[in-house]
Amino acid sequence: MRSEYGLIFGLGCLALIGSVVTLAVLAYADHPNWQGIFAMAAAHWVAGKGVSVIQGLAMGLHPVVILILATVSDLVLMLLAYPVLVFAYEHFFETPLFQRHMRRVFESAQRGMDRVGRFKALGVFLFVWLPFWMTGVLAGSILGYSMGLKSWVTLLSATLGTFTSIVVWLLFTNQILSVFDWIDDKMVGLAVLGLLVAMLAWRRTRRQRLAARHRFMRGKR
């Protein structure tokens, strides 16, 4: 806990506590938007920023509130998970726990090295920013670690990347809603959500096929 990664994890804990206290205060004060904020935060942690942006718009939250809430949610997740993943990679790489649950994040970051590795900090920003790559701050921060970047450079680049990515999601979703303004907003939101789920399912299926092919080739050797 006295190391650099321990400090980052401590900041993540403080940010998480601050977020929970803020939500509790809003609920206690019966703020008109506290249920929407809670629903969006839950959607963000379960399904990511694309789904949470749609959830926030469907609940009638202001775009600025959505932008701040989604960015803070990603930041808290990164501050908590980044030091844990790096510590596990450096000390427990060969354990079944790491191989089963954490290796995929590093594999995603390794694929990112092939795309944007030569750009260093800008590469981390691009890796997180481009929303249709479906890459978040977690994989982006591990990409920065894999490149040998300093932690503060990695975290700052990933935070800026997710901020601009959320802006893109907001503009994209609002554009869809404005084009189909004759349809109920919730129906359009469900359609966009369905498209996003389909993209995530395709990505997961593709990853499973690549993993199965890798195991098959390794078995042949």
Sum this structure up briefly.
This protein is an all-alpha fold.
Helix-strand blueprint:
Blueprint: H1 4-28, H2 34-47, H3 49-58, H4 63-91, H5 96-101, H6 103-116, H7 121-129, H8 137-147, H9 151-179, H10 185-220
Helix pairs in contact: 1-4, 2-3, 2-4, 3-4, 3-9, 3-10, 4-8, 4-9, 6-7, 6-8, 7-8, 7-9, 8-9
Describe this structure in words.
By secondary structure, this protein is mainly α. It has one domain. It has helices spanning 4-28, 34-47, 49-58, 63-91, 96-101, 103-116, 121-129, 137-147, 151-179, 185-220. Helix 6 packs across helix 7 and helix 8 packs antiparallel against helix 9 (151-179). It is globular and about 50 Å long. It starts with a helix and ends with a helix.
Key structural traits:
mainly alpha; 83% helix; globular; single chain; 221 residues
Q: Whole-number average pLDDT?
A: 80
Low-confidence stretches: none
- Secondary-structure element series: HHHHHHHHHH
Query: Distance N terminus to C terminus?
Result: 42 Å
